[in-house]
Structures are given as structure tokens and as C-alpha cells.
Write a structure and sequence with these properties.
This protein is mainly α and about 80 residues long. It has 5 helices and no strands. Helices cover about 65% and strands about 0% of the residues.
Length: about 80
């Protein structure tokens, strides 16, 4: 099983691609809705990247319920 820091690095990479922000501007404490955005197409891109990488299901509506990137990582770790 992957270490949390590896999952975090991947989720940051996926968020960077989905939301068009540099990876160095995203960290564990980045607020998903406030700092990244609320466009559903971006959230779909993020959730599908995570699902493809880790074989976990994340309903798109659920992405907006994670306050921070760290919360999302915790969810992925729990589901793996």
C-alpha cells in the first residue's frame, strides 16, 4: 500500500492538472472549493484521475465536500 505522502503528491499533481494551477501552489492545506474552484468539469477531472490511479470511487458531488486536499487524501487512504 502506498504511503500517505505518495498519495498526497499524486493528488496534488492531479489537482494541478485539473484546476490549471502550479503544483507548488497546492498543498495539504489547500482549500478545495475556496482556492481551487467549483467548476464541475474540473472536479470530474480530479476525481477521475484519482479513481484511475487508486481504483477508488469518489462521487463528483463528494469532491466539493472535502474542505482541503489533505481531507481528500485521507478519504483515498481509507478507501484503498
Amino acid at each position: 500500500m502506498e504511503e500517505r505522502k505518495e498519495v498526497l503528491a499524486n493528488v496534488i499533481k492531479f489537482a494541478s492538472m485539473a484546476f490549471g494551477k502550479p503544483e507548488d501552489q497546492i498543498n495539504e492545506n489547500t482549500k478545495v472549493s475556496e482556492e481551487l474552484g467549483v467548476k464541475s468539469v474540473q472536479r470530474v477531472a480530479l476525481s477521475s484521475s484519482i479513481e484511475n490511479e487508486y481504483d477508488v470511487m469518489i462521487p463528483v458531488a463528494r469532491i466539493g465536500k472535502f474542505e482541503t486536499i489533505g481531507d481528500l487524501v485521507d478519504y483515498v487512504m481509507d478507501e484503498m
